[in-house]
Amino acid sequence: MNKYIYLVYLSFKKLIMYKSEIWLGIFSSVVTLSIQIYLWKRLYATNPAYLGVSLEDMITYFILSSGLSVCLLSPDMLEELTEDVRGGQIANHLSKPYRYQLTILSRSLGRVFFNLLFVVLPMFIIAVLLFGFTFPQNFSSLILAIFIVANSYIIYFTINFIAGLSSFWIMDLHGAIPLLLDNIIRILSGALIPIWIFPKWLYNLTYFLPIRLGFDLPLSIYIGNADSKYIIHGLVLQFIWLVILLTVSSIIWKKGIRKLVIQGG
Fold first, then answer.
1. pTM (2 d.p.)
2. In which domain, by residue range, is 211 found?
3. CB-based contact 249:162 (threshold 8 Å)
4. Helix 100-115 crosses helix 55-72 at what angle (to 10 degrees)?
């Protein structure tokens, strides 16, 4: 276990070297959030009843959503895995005394801790000063939301890991495919638009997707827009998706490694 913790540290330390990217990440996050909040303020000025929650709660939703996006939707892990497969470095990893999946996870966690400290925290402070913020009605809502986000991190990681493993069969996994995957996740997860204002048919489809559980469910709990039935359904669905995705990931990993060995990698 110590070696994986050390990999988390190395990943974190490596990112600190790029100080210019820290400021760029903060600036980009604040600008994007400002545009979102400006647009939603305009919508509230025309039809506030349709949007379901108060403007203050919606601003809180998007401040938190921006922070989650930085941590959950980073493309770095997918790019790293794809390059390992395409470049053949994955064969070197297989000969070392650690599990490749946990290595990638450790590096990803290092990036998450870095982003939390140097991007999300400054962005949060700036956003609260500029736009205000609503705190949860009770401490249990905050704890439950954090628990769900932690589980959703594993879901998002596994989705990206499965997508990266497809490089065993699709060699040119660059450009349009990762961009399309990222945009679909952002829209259908509730990161850009709360799913409760979707058309009914799209809401019903999105409700059962695993990506919803990283944004819609914890943020709805935080701002008090989720009843007990909604929360229980979400927790059960999250557990089911965790089992499904981890199983699929294991199967694809074994098939990919078998393909690599057969081809003499």
1. 0.88
2. 2-262
3. yes
4. 140
